Amino acid sequence: MPGGWLEFELPLVQLEQRIRDLQTLAGKQGPDVADELRSLERKADRLRRKIFSKLTPWERVKLARHPRRPYTLDYIQHLFTDFFELHGDRAFGDDAALIAGLGRFEGRPVAVVGHQKGRNTKENLRRNFGMPHPEGYRKALRVMKLAEKFGNPMLSFIDTPGAYPGIGAEERGQSEAIARSIREMSALKVPILVFVTGEGGSGGALAIGVGDRVYVLEYSFYSVISPEGCASILWKTREKAAQAAEALKFTAPELLKLGVIDQVLPEPPGGAHRDGAAMARTIGETIRGALAELDELTPEQLVERRQDRFLSMGVFDGGTSGKEIE
What we know:
Strand 5 (192-201), helix 9 and strand 6 form a beta-alpha-beta unit. The chain is an alpha/beta fold. It has helices at 10-29, 34-52, 57-64, 72-79, 121-127, 134-150, 167-171, 174-186, 202-206, 227-234, 241-248, 252-258, 276-294, 299-311, 322-325; strands at 81-85, 98-105, 108-115, 154-160, 192-201, 213-217, 221-223, 263-265. The longest helix is centred in the N-terminal third of the chain and has 20 residues, at 10-29. Strands 1, 2, 3, 4, 5, 6, 7 and 8 form an 8-stranded mixed sheet that branches.
């Protein structure tokens, strides 16, 4: 990733740099370079559409993991005021891989939880590459219960390869923490909006992903397992990850077709990492509209609809006997 850019992005990045150089030159030389500048801008637009209209599932995975992609704290900065982060689960410790706190959205009190990755090696080690321990999920649940107590909406931002599978995490009850979070979220008597902003990996994502509305950004993915993990199980090698990504059907358009999510949120041209502020505005508009709709429901209706939604996933009519299947 030269300069933090993906390989298939480089031709566009180089062209955009030429445009910026010409724009600087145009300010000094006036209209002499204007025609060339317009020509390059049209070329860049065509190249951008060509690249991003034909992305493979594996290329979408790479975009979802893009090191320049906005993370939870970036969205918090753009979307919320008076945000106050809470730390610790009051049982073991704090977990920097999961942000949890209280703030205001357009003046309205809300609770916010979300995975957080780092921008460099040191920060990634502190954030554990966005993979929470059980204390992270228990901290998030603590904030969820505060939201319910005060009648505030819950906003969840998902971007994780999965919950941390280390020995310490397992000893401290990783599976119990995830299961409890899923159970408690399903019964919260406040509106819950979920946004998959990058990777939506396995139970580590679902632990904060039980919502009244679930949205996935255009180049994000939401899956029961990472493509590398799937390839390691099926083909005994991570080198088949691209093939696994194709088979898993976890891209945003495919998830919408399957009824797993409510809406695909369009990203700025070239991806959210190219204009985080624009992506935040799209999320903000979505929050505003969704809360206006959910505010019309009683707490009991919210819980009933949410539980029915998730319990109905995966239900199918067998319609054949064992003999016919054979």
